[in-house]
Predict the structure.
Amino acid sequence: MWDIEEFERAAHTTVAALAAYVDESQHGLPPVTAQRPPAELARRLGIRRWIREGGMTDEDYRRFLDVYLAEGTRLHHPSYLGHQSAAPDFPAALADFVHGATNNPMAIYEMGASAATVELEILRWMLDKVGFGSAGGGVLTHGGSLANLTAMLAARARAVPEAWTDGVPGDLALLAPPSAHYSVTRAAAILGLGERAIIPLPVDRLGRIEVARLPEALEHARRAGRRPFVLVASACSTGTGLYDDLRPIGEFCAEHGIWFHVDGAHGASALLSDAHRHLLDGIETADSVIWDAHKMMRVSSLATAVLVRREADLDRAFQQEASYLFYGERSFDLIGRTVECTKAQLGLKIFLNLAWRGERGMGEYVAARYATAHRLWELARERPGFTCPYEPQSNIVCFRYGSREVDQAALRKRLMDDGTFYLTSTEVDGVRHLRATVIAPATDDKAIEALLDAIAEVGTRIAA
């Protein structure tokens, strides 16, 4: 049994340490990241000793937590411009705390009625936002990779209902742009299609699907003896943050009887911004959509919605038998729609953020991050030595510094080594670029100017 007084002391220690951590991170006081080698860090944390001996006290825990927090990456920091992981809002953190204590695995309704009900209502809200309405269905999963896989399973079940029992026909094909998230390729392999079943769609130099050439791709697949059953579009692309033109792609898929899947993991939250929802025009023509809350809805990892236009399609994605689980009336269970049997209370994180901030507050956050990214682009292209291959549509900005010979990956590493800035890198049109994801609310013009100054200084030294 819990020692309640011990729990309360430890919880107080935790809250105090996290409050200080977020506060100093938001003000940009410590380095944005620490990259100490694992063996050295394990010694500093005393991990092996604690595993062996136990006996941690509240004071031991406080010291451990101080080191643990100092040695990570500070997503609330104004200099965090790295991967697409949210600087979580505090209501979502409270939800994680509640889940950690209550541990209701609510994929089965009777194991967590409150959590399941919250998830069902969050899904209803998200279905309305994408335009699927009451006819649609959904489920929350632990991340976009599982979500894309789940959507592919639903598409396969609609195209080849017997695949679950008889195996996958060898002629199925999946149409996707080369810029699609790597989880799409993983899903094809896990589904038994194999990577060769992916027919690359023609794209422009920035990786966006060329709608006018879709008939060409379909004809190529058919000449190869393939039967395309699903087409994947990005809203937005993980690498560049650019959106595919969804409406004409959806019309093409409807005309040819192909399941249309929109990977909206990062960019579907633009639906909450009046100024940006036009980027997702036509999303309602999709058969399935995925939408990450742990990116632009400021939810801690992980929480991704799989949304389908016809609820029955998701119910057919999986088939299962287990006499200890599936019996009697189970109409509110979500377990039949997910890979996961034990599923966290994911909806609570989204709900509490909405309950505190509202749809309008969420939309204002998305609009502000998109606007700050656009400001980064404006400032970068005005400076000598910087080149920007496109105007950003989201909060992701790609750019280069210096001549083609300047190693952008080395430039990034210099910034990372001293913890000054955290940004990533990608290829655009076959050329390596720096990549900034403007996601922390603390990132402002001052941080952007400092980033560009630091890049110019380091880049000049590398070029010399």
